[in-house]
Structure formats: C-alpha cells, structure tokens
Amino acid sequence: MISTDEPVELGPAVRALDAARSVTILCHVQPDADTVGSGLALALVLRRRGIPVRVSFAEPAALAVSLRTLPGAELLVPPAEVPAEVDLLVTVDCGSAGRLGALGDRLAGAGTTLVIDHHRSNTRFGAINLIDPDAESTAGLVARVLDAWGEEIDAPVAHCLYAGLVTDTGSFRWVRPGTHGLAERLLGTGIDGAEISRGLLDTHPFGWLPMLASVLGSARLAPGVRGGIGLAYAFVRRTDLRGLGAEEVESVIDIVRTSAEAGIAAVFKEHRTVDGRWTVSLRSRNSGPGAADGVDVSAVATALGGGGHRFAAGYTAHGTADDILAALLAALE
Ligand code: 5GP
Ligand code: MN
C-alpha cells in the first residue's frame, strides 16, 4: 500500500521515456477508457518523437466499440505481437502484474519497466513506479508526465486523456482540486468534450434496456451488512449479455450503487464463456452522511484476490452465484 502523503516523483519516469529506443505499453485486461486513453496518449507522443511504440492488452480479443475511435487506436497490436523481450515496458492503470493477464510474463523480458498508476492497492511491480493514489485518473498522471517532459498535449493526445478523465471521474462527479483545471486545458485544444462523453458514456444498443430490466429486477438489498451499512447487489448472467458489449455490463454498477439504503454495492458479472467464473465490481459511498468511515472496498477486493481504489474495486470469483455471494458477505463481516 502507498501512503497518500508520499511525494510523487515524475523525474525517473520522464528519464526512462526520454531514453527509450522503443516502447511497449500495456493496458489492463477488460480495458476501460482510462487505461486505453492513457496508453494511446503516451504512444502518440512517442510516435511523434519518432520512437517505435506499440500498445496492447491481453483480453478480450476485441477492443470495446466505444474505444475504437480514440486517436492512435491503430497503434494497438494483438497480444501475440508483443515480443517476449522488449526495451522499455510501460504499464498504465494496472494495480498489479495480474491485471496484465497473459501479458504479465513480458515484465521479465523487459529492459526496464515503468508502472504508471493511481490504484491504492498498487503492488509497485515495476523497476520505476509512478503511483499516485490521489490522482483521479491515470490519464491525469500521464498529463503530469508530459508536462514534466516538456511534451505538448495536442488535440489527439488531449482526446485520449479526456476519455480517461471523464470516465474515471464518473462524468466529473468524483473530482479533486485540479480535475477541472485539466479538463479545461484539454478542452482548450479544440476537442469535442460533449461528443467524446456521449460516445463513451451515453451510447448503448437498444438491447441494453431489456438487459437492465432483467438484471435490476433481480437486485437485492441486504441491509444488515457491515453493522447496518448495507449492501445492494445484482447478478449479470451470461444469458443477459447476448449481443451486448462491455460498456453495457459495466454500466450496471453505476445504477446499483445509487441505492440510498446501502453504503456498499456489488455487481457479479458472469464470464461469457468460462463456467463458474465471475468478475465482481464493488463500490462504497464516498460522500454524504457516514462517508468519513465509508467502507474501504479496495481492502475487501484485495482480500478476495483483486484490488482497486478505496471506493471502487473489483476481483475475480469462482463458483455458483450462491457461493460467490456468500464469499463476499463473509469478507464484509
Ligand atoms: P470495475 O468494477 O470498474 O471493474 O473496477 C473497479 C476498480 O477496481 C478499477 O479501478 C479496477 O482497476 C479495479 N479492479 C477491478 N477488478 C480488479 C482485479 O481483479 N484486480 C485488481 N487488482 N483490481 C481490480
Ligand atoms: Mn483508472
């Protein structure tokens, strides 16, 4: 765990990037806009400097539809095209080596490794670790790296960074001093913030609506959890997923977590193909009454083999729906 008052030193990261002959950037599995936006922003700058660069993630095979229009997406390569030995390996938005999935083995073959991340549970698995748990997004941390490096944030880079910023702040709901200042700077490059947000957050196929009806219809409230803090939860089953993408699945937790009666929310998401495998999203209330002693779901997720942030975390679970619910309830005791 990183203490939040540890100063964040940008120098080693900047020097590693500046000295690199070629760079491989890895995003986390089930990549979201913060990991892909941060990775592509960095890749665009490196390409501009004439440095060979590739970006990859282990799974799933295809990038979420809403991320395919990010500038620099052509720099993404399939995991099989990431050689066993690379020069500088940079991971973005990954709290642990496990978040690299099958690409985790590339760490050993790298000349040097740079970890850029904002997860509280970060395990500091790089040779150079640029980790700021106070950063609202990894994209914001990348912006600081580019400033320290003296590299301009032009419109394509700003587009990628804005994508990470707007999604990791929940459309600027979870903000800190500096968040809006960065947004202002990025928008000042001429990018269309409204259009980027619409594509990332407000666009779903029609099938999203019946999926929500089914999933939310089976949501449950367990008011006694954690001494009365309460848990609201729902299951997204494989049969609910037909024809829908990651954006639709990931949207569910944002609705479940609005339940006023519960300080904790969970969504159990069944794997599309592997029987008995689920990914779990956890959230806890981070403002309002009682928030000062809000539940640290990062610690709960870490105990269950995952990790994350104090108020947003996740893990992978195995078993029946009843098994995994029981395991979470036990961890929340
Ligand atoms: P989400 O619910 O959006 O998938 O994840 C919430 C937060 O927890 C994200 O910041 C994500 O990086 C982290 N997280 C989700 N699943 C895992 C996991 O299996 N391992 C770790 N270390 N972090 C996770
Ligand atoms: Mn992030």
TrEMBL record:
<protein>
    <submittedName>
        <fullName>Bifunctional oligoribonuclease/PAP phosphatase NrnA</fullName>
        <ecNumber>3.1.3.7</ecNumber>
    </submittedName>
</protein>
<dbReference type="InterPro" id="IPR038763">
    <property type="entry name" value="DHH_sf"/>
</dbReference>
<dbReference type="Pfam" id="PF01368">
    <property type="entry name" value="DHH"/>
</dbReference>
<feature type="domain" description="DDH">
    <location>
        <begin position="23"/>
        <end position="164"/>
    </location>
</feature>
<feature type="domain" description="DHHA1">
    <location>
        <begin position="243"/>
        <end position="329"/>
    </location>
</feature>
<dbReference type="InterPro" id="IPR001667">
    <property type="entry name" value="DDH_dom"/>
</dbReference>
<dbReference type="GO" id="GO:0008441">
    <property type="term" value="F:3'(2'),5'-bisphosphate nucleotidase activity"/>
</dbReference>
<dbReference type="InterPro" id="IPR003156">
    <property type="entry name" value="DHHA1_dom"/>
</dbReference>
<keyword id="KW-0378">Hydrolase</keyword>
<dbReference type="Pfam" id="PF02272">
    <property type="entry name" value="DHHA1"/>
</dbReference>
<dbReference type="InterPro" id="IPR051319">
    <property type="entry name" value="Oligoribo/pAp-PDE_c-di-AMP_PDE"/>
</dbReference>
